[in-house]
Amino acid sequence: MKKVKILACFSLILFTATLSAQNDTPGLTSGILTPYSTEVRLMDSAYNFKWDTTSVAWSLYQKDYKNKNTSGLLTEDLYRIFLSSTNDWINKNRLLYTYFPGRVAVQEISGQLWNTSTSEWVDYLYTHYADSLRIDTTYTKTWDQVQHKFISGTRDCYLYDSLNSVILYTQQSMDPVSKAWVNSQMISDTFNFYENVLEEITKIWNINTESWVNNYRKVYQYDTTGYKLMGFTEYSWNKDSLYWENAYRTTYTLTMAGKRIQSLLEIWDPIMKIWVNSLKDQIIYTPDGYLGTDVQQVFDVSNQVWKNYYLTIHTYFTTGNPQAISGSFWNNTTWIQNSNHALDSVGHLIEDYSLTYNPETFDFTGGSRYSHNYDSYGNDTLYLVQTWNVNTSSWLNNKRNLYSYDPDYHLLKTDIAQNWKTNLSDWQNDTRWDYYYSDYFGVPEKQNLQHSCLYSNPLTYGSTIRCPMLDDGSVYDLALYSMTGSKLWNKTLNGNGSFAFDANVTPGIYILSISQKGNIISSDKVIVIR
Hints:
single chain, 1 helix, mainly beta, 26-stranded antiparallel β-barrel, 5-stranded mixed sheet, globular
């Protein structure tokens, strides 16, 4: 399996920074490819407050200030702490962004902490992107505020092939004395013609011999076409005999259409020299072809029979959008549900809970539940965290976040975090963030504007998007993002043509972008209505 780590903040930075103008005139427009936008709302700063239980009031604590260049691209994200004793701000940490020349894509992200003893910035985080916008180097260091020095750290390095698949991943750790990076683990992958991984080898660094030593190997099996995965075999390295030993084997059973209907995990018996049954998944699909149920069974070696263990059920709305994924343990007579991942009709997460199950006593010993509420524009208005009470077998409030938004642009304005006080049977304020935005005029779009798509703005479900100017035979990706950078819908375009806009999202303001090979060509702010 390819091990690629992506920074979650990157997509938000990239898509927020490249917003184009909202076209307020309904009708056919070439909104994606407006060379210069007329107005963009970008976050300017955020102020953090802590709740003072003594004065029963908010106390200013820190602020996040965002500096941008003339194109509206984020160059510095600075956090500072407020000292009420001196009524002054002191540095805390910051992120610095640099971009590829002539592009809006981030090339480097540097994170720095303020060293109060020397009054200077020290690097603790760094990420570098290759031309393909894939990470090739990233590291983080742990800073000791008392000793004013770095005490640990990890660095990841990636090497890609011509199709941007990871062929070599190296992990290193920081020597706390010399501060040098020391090899730790290396994973190398080889691929077939379809860029499906054939073999993955994990090696660990031997400090004494200063060389890589085999540790783990995974070999994938495909059908005769080399495309459909039929399973994989895992091996461990025998240091004494210096050869790969069988460890685990997983075999898939597929339908004629290539859908997986069974997974069988076997464990190698080194004494009997045979594969022994261990775990099995039986998968059933809905009449519409969606994943329906997955029954997991464990093999009872003593009685040589399969026994139920875990059940996963997928349900869907009539539109085909996912509705819920529930999980249940088997207690010898029936299924006991212990988890649920529920979405609304447009894909927003509304509930996610998991209970810890004791298979011996057949009861729950703990668990957590997360739930969300949204407004008509799809903005998260409530995030609630609850914990399982084993005495009452019910959910107890733990903490929550309340969000409010700008009435005109529907951008986040306030985030209030509260904790549940059981003795008061009420919520108590903890922290608050207030967000402020700036208007940027004339922010340049990306260059290379020869491609265009035509669509109505506002967009409605089923309305036509035509792309007559896209290069015929080339592959593009058209995607819809929320104002916070979450991808909600995408469509692959094979050259020019037209198609129906079928993103089932709530009415609101979104970002519509077109990209090719991971590089954004252009993006625009659009209104989606019913």
